[in-house]
Structures are given as C-alpha cells and as structure tokens.
C-alpha cells in the first residue's frame, strides 16, 4: 500500500488513572507486600506463562539477589484458565526456595497503577507480543523498562532513552541490563521520566480513540460522497 493510504493506530491507556502524581502511598503498598520501603524493586505484570519470559525473569532474580541484599523481584498476575501455554509454577517454587522473601508474587490485582508505583524498574522479557499495554502503563507511571527486542515492545521502548532492549530468551543479557539500572539509579529515573513523556505524547487513550473516530468519520464521508 502507498504510505499515504496507511495509518497506524497504536494502543493507549487512561492517563488520569496511570498518573504517578495521584499516588501517595508507595511505602504503604510495599509494606503490604512485605517489601522494604528502601528496597530496589524489579517488577513484572502479566500472565504467568513461559512465553512472557518469566523463566528468564526468575533466572535473573536468582543471579542478582545474592549480590544485592536489598533487591526484590515482584511478579504480578496469574495464569488464565484459557491459556494453552505452559505455566511456570514449578520454576517459581524453585526460585522461591533459593531466594526466599526477595521474590514476591501477588497473583492478580486490580490496583495496577499503585503496584507499578511500588516498582523501580519494569521488566517484560516476552518472546512475542502485539503491542503490550503493560509497558505503556509502566512508562506512563514514569518507570524505566527492560524488554525484549521484539515487535511491539521495541515500538514502545526507545533503547538507551526510555529503557533497554535485550535479545529474546537471554537470561544472561537480561540480568546484565537489570544490573545496569541497579547500579545507576539516577540514570534509571532519567529514562523513566523520558518514558512518561513519550507515553503522554503517543499513548494517551483519549487521543488514540479520537484518532480512530476521526478516521471512521473520514472514511464514511468519502463513502457517502461516492454514493
């Protein structure tokens, strides 16, 4: 198709809900999950299946927590009844037995903005994605992101500007990327702020819907003119 006939309409989230300035209970949220208020928290939100990269996430947790006593890994979500992909429960139990309280799993939650506010770094090491809302939500909350270099994720995350992109199924490089943020927290905050600015400019749900409606109206007008 000629470029002038192609319009890309992406995903979006509700800006008023994913607004870091409206959340004033970060410490209380952490305490409710038995996470120290001064910990560094790497978080994941999504289905608990292998294709979301949770094995790599757990491998990174086991590699890093022995070297960083105040480092915590937070898993949010469940495996859905409709999921055909294999789960990760046995691997989770194995990791939990090795690093104990440094690995926290909450199950499904409906307070995702609050949960993300308790994180320092958002991680989504998926093997495949469409256009993940969870990354947009994390960016909107001002969090830097580590994601895999796949379709969708690389459209949202600008490497070295709003986060880092790593190869699929590479726990070693995922670990290295996470460690960069642990050791340079000011840099991480800078990337998180840049991510929020990008999310506000591109992924405001109201603007995405407006663009959709405008395109529908344009096409309808053109159709009516032809008939």
Overview of the structural elements:
By secondary structure, the protein is of the alpha/beta class. It has a single domain (9-226), classed as 3-Layer(aba) Sandwich (Rossmann fold). Helix content is 44%, strand content 13%. The chain is built from nine helices and six strands. The protein has helices at 26-32, 54-64, 89-99, 112-117, 133-140, 153-156, 171-183, 185-202, 205-226; strands at 40-45, 71-76, 103-107, 121-124, 145-148, 163-166. It has a six-stranded parallel beta sheet with strand order 3-2-1-4-5-6, with helices on both faces. Helix 5 (133-140) links the parallel strand 4 and strand 5 (145-148). It is globular. The two termini are 24 Å apart. 37% of the residues are buried. The model has no long low-confidence stretch (mean pLDDT 94).
């Amino acid at each position: 198709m000629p470029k002038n006939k192609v319009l890309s309409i992406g995903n979006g989230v509700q800006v008023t809900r994913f607004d870091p300035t409206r959340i004033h209970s970060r410490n209380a949220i952490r305490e409710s999950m038995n996470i120290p208020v001064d910990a560094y928290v790497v978080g994941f939100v999504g289905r608990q299946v292998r294709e979301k990269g949770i094995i790599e996430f757990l491998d990174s947790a086991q590699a890093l927590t022995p070297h960083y006593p105040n480092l915590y890994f937070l898993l949010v979500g469940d495996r859905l009844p409709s999921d055909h992909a294999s789960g990760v429960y046995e691997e989770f139990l194995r990791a939990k037995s090795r690093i104990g309280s440094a690995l926290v799993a909450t199950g499904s939650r409906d307070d995702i903005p609050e949960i993300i506010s308790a994180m320092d770094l958002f991680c989504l090491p998926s093997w495949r994605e469409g256009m993940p809302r969870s990354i947009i939500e994390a960016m909107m909350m001002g969090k830097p992101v580590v994601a895999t270099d796949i379709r969708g994720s690389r459209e949202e995350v600008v490497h070295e500007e709003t986060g880092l992109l790593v190869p699929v199924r590479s726990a070693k490089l995922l670990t290295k990327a996470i460690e960069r943020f642990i050791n340079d927290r000011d840099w991480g905050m800078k990337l998180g702020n840049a991510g929020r600015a990008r999310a506000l400019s591109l992924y405001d749900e109201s603007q995405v819907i407006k663009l959709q409606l405008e395109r529908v109206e344009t096409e309808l007008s053109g159709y009516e003119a032809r008939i």
